[in-house]
Design brief:
alpha/beta; globular; 5 helices; 5-stranded mixed beta sheet
């Protein structure tokens, strides 16, 4: 069973002005898929705080998968992909080639989803069938992509 963490990036939710609607949806989907959700959390749209939380969840908590929701749009405060890329650059310079939708920190896969519950659900549904294989590759359990054909 892989360990996951969910982080909602939202100024209003972090301030308690709006309930987190997408984080619980993502956590429930991961649990239904067999992931152990270690924690869920909220951070504001502040790049240093997002980076610190991604480092904490991957380096200290040891999550295999971190899923963020929110902060991926075009508004000036939507900085989640940049924060993820910056945190990943500390591990490998190849992170600069990322399209900023998903990245790897050590043995943790980090996936960014949009902030609306509907969009988060749709995007997670699109990648959920492939996540376990990617996590097996990261953990060293599976080293051959051809060993298991895609569904």
């Amino acid at each position: 069973m892989f360990k996951a963490a969910v982080v909602t990036v939202s100024d209003r939710s972090a301030r308690g002005e709006r309930p987190d609607a997408s984080g619980p949806v993502v956590a429930a989907m991961l649990e239904q898929a067999g992931y152990q959700v270690l924690c869920t959390g909220l951070v504001p749209d502040e790049q240093p705080q997002i980076e610190a939380e991604l480092r904490r969840l991957s380096d200290q908590l040891g999550a295999d998968l971190v899923v963020t929701t929110g902060g991926t749009g075009f508004a000036p405060r939507d900085v989640t992909p940049e924060a993820m890329r910056y945190a990943s650059m500390a591990v490998t310079p190849r992170a600069m080639l990322s399209r900023a939708q998903a990245g790897i920190r050590g043995r943790t896969l980090i996936v960014n989803l949009p902030g609306s519950p509907k969009a988060a659900r749709e995007n997670l549904e699109a990648v959920l069938p492939s996540l376990a294989h990617g996590l097996e590759m990261l953990s060293g359990v599976q080293a051959d992509c051809a060993a298991h054909p895609a569904p």
